[in-house]
Amino acid sequence: MLQLTRHLARLCLTLLFAAAAAGACAQGAPRPKLTDAGISDPASAIWIGNSFFYYNNSMHGHVGQFIAAGMPGFRHRATSVTISGSGFDWHDVDAYFRPNAIGNYSFDANNNVVFNKIERLFDVAIMMDCSQCPLHPQLAPVFTKYAKSNADTVRKHGAKPVYFMSWAYQDKPEMTAQLAEAYVREANANDAFVIPAGLAFARSVAQRPDVNLYVADKRHPSLAGTYLAAATSYAALFKRSPVGSSYTAGLDPAVARHLQTVAWDTVQAFYRRND
């Protein structure tokens, strides 16, 4: 009886995620105004966010591995600026574009300091609010305020603003549609691009609930979760399919292939690039 109860519980949760994914993509849901980031194959990116980005040795590192595997010879420079638990309003985005600061130097393969000459610091700025902020009664207005001000700041410095749509908590699948609506609404209002990572999470859970995308706290990403979000980011920003990529992050090849396919299918459906 206990085993049957657990099975039914898992089934119900799977159905809830499937419903959330369907709801977020329903006919009445807002559609993104922009279907690309406005820069073909961005050569540089800054990731501005929180622990959802820095888990599993940082999201930008995994995206970089997809780029290396899928675009040999393409040089992409990225950095991540994260504050644990942070929302849009915790970050001084203007400070991240100071001259002779971020990106001013790096280290080569022999650990020698290399001083870089950079004409434009970043092509895109990928920003994520705290996991609940867009939905919280008191913090939602802050989300709206800083979605605009941060996008304006990024654009002032010659970069393109990108919003990273975060995922639902494992035990609160209804957050998927709510977060999707909030991020797309603000992106359309501020001419920003959206990466639909949250929709990819819901699609994966609906298709393969056995692939766990979360750690024990039901919020932060497992390695599979980070991998899926990175594959979705790569597909969205570079308009290239991650399916068949040699980069698997050490995951089982069948699991990696599933996550690659989910990322590509989500991106194609979200932007309706096949219309």
Characterize this entry briefly.
With 275 residues, the chain is an alpha/beta fold. The protein has helices at residues 2-24, 51-54, 59-70, 140-156, 175-189, 197-207, 223-238, 253-271, and strands at 44-49, 77-82, 105-107, 113-115, 124-127, 160-164, 193-195. The strands form 2 sheets. A 5-stranded parallel beta sheet has the order 2-1-5-6-7, with helices on both faces. The chain has a two-stranded antiparallel sheet with strand order 3-4.
Q: What report would you give on this structure?
A:
Helices cover 43% and strands 11% of the residues. The protein is α/β, with parallel strands linked by helices and 275 residues long. It has one domain: Rossmann fold, CATH 3.40.50.1110. β5, α4 and β6 form a beta-alpha-beta unit. α1 packs antiparallel against α6, α6 crosses α7 and α7 packs across α8. The chain is globular and about 45 Å long. The protein starts with a helix and ends with a helix.
Structure characteristics:
disordered N terminus; 275 residues; alpha/beta; five-stranded parallel sheet
Instruction: Give the CATH topology.
Output: Rossmann fold
Distance N to C terminus: 48 Å
CATH superfamily: SGNH hydrolase
Q: Which CATH class applies here? A: Alpha Beta
The sequence of SSEs as H and E is HEHHEEEEHEHEHHH
Spans of at least 5 consecutive residues with low confidence: 1-28
| Largest sheet, spatial ordering of strands | 2-1-5-6-7
Estimate nothing, just give the exact number of structural domains: 1
Strand percentage, roughly? 5-15%
Protein name: SGNH/GDSL hydrolase family protein
Signal peptide: 1-26
GO molecular function, one term: hydrolase activity, acting on ester bonds
Keywords: Signal
